[in-house]
Amino acid sequence: MTMEIKNPCINSIARISLGEKLAYGIGDFGSNMVYANVAAFLTFFYTDIVGISGAVIGSIILFSRLFDGFSDVAMGYIVDNTNHRFGKARPWILRSAIPLAFTLVLLFSLPGFGKIGTAVYLFIMYNLLTTVFYTMYSIPHGTQVALITQDQYERSLLNISRMVSGTIGALLVNILTVNLVNQFGGGVAAWRKVFVIYGIIAAAAIILSFYFTKERVASKKAVKEKITLKAGFNALLSNKYWRLVLLLGILTYGIMALSGINIYYVTYILGNQRAMGTLMIFYFASSIAGMIVMMPIIKKLGKRNTVFVGFVIYLIGTIIILINPNAESNVYAGLFVKGLGFAPLVGSLPSFIVDTIEYGEWKTGIRNEGLVYSSESFGQKFGNGLSSAMLGWLLALSGYVGGSGIQTESSTSVIIALFTYIPLILYAFAVIVLMFYKLDKEYNKILYELHK
Length: 452
Prior knowledge:
This protein is an all-alpha fold. The chain has two domains: about 1-220, MFS general substrate transporter like domains (Growth Hormone, Chain: A, Up-down Bundle), CATH 1.20.1250; about 225-450, Up-down Bundle (Growth Hormone, Chain: A). The protein has 17 helices and no strands.
């Protein structure tokens, strides 16, 4: 039987107001005015509107990932060594808001430099936006949960608020952007006007998130001297739960990256490319519903066990699709059920990450919120990139021919596998990883000892 530790430190900071939870979440609503738009429309804008080769754009994005990985770790180190009247994370969230909005507008503007000059302009603006200013927002904002409260359930609610708000932002972006561009008359000028609107919304939401949240948590062993990068990494490597959650993040974002197969599935399996919009609505709607439904379940079962329940639901959704993978009704119903099942994993991942911070502090005496979160972010991007590459490799090996109206049987089999079996296998590996995760049972005892 697990001994329950009544921790007065938890009770004193456990209750976070609904307003603060919503304020924390609205930051990701704003950031998805940036991130979701770049993910969905950057390539299209520069190929179809500006006229740059898709190969050039792909190379720029792939090469920029190298800078992005280094900037994540650097930003985490900066957060860990920030001492400001607003806290460790909040100052950087505020500082990121205006530059993030401004570079978003510049990225979706035509400079008129010619093709080589425009490619250079894209490289500079893309890295300013994603590698510098988006990292300046995302790493501190993710880290902030560990600084708002040490209560596990409240952290889960904060992260669910964040994920729901971000999903709503992404849904609106996917539905509204093309329609707004057409309303403004199309062309470069119309795109720029639309992104001015998105930039204003993004900056306002991020600033609101800054003003209506508060950092409450500080290490009992905190001192003025800085944590060296070497000491921070040594502390990470000795944290067994950080290693598990790093692998969990790679698997979770690997599943998310496989959504790139959706457009192929509706085109070559369902034979109806227009079904893509409906598919995305079912996906986002189920994600939001799943994150809301999981709140009371987490309180009763804990994060880990809720993910186990989610896997069973995800398995049922996959089976529904496989009963008749060519029928739209089966695909929509199965995808909705899969979304409900995936929500506990993707919604709880940030909470799994921040809970490892207290374990690391207890084990090593070093509290390094920023480095923990930034290194996990780097791992998630690795998982995203690995799955994206796997998608392309498997399609190529299957004999897929882009633009062809008819694909070989091996190609369609690979597309179905990437849509159903492979995400399920990755989720199963995530469940296996979580079987070794016992921190939920140990957490109160660790926190009690930290505050003795």
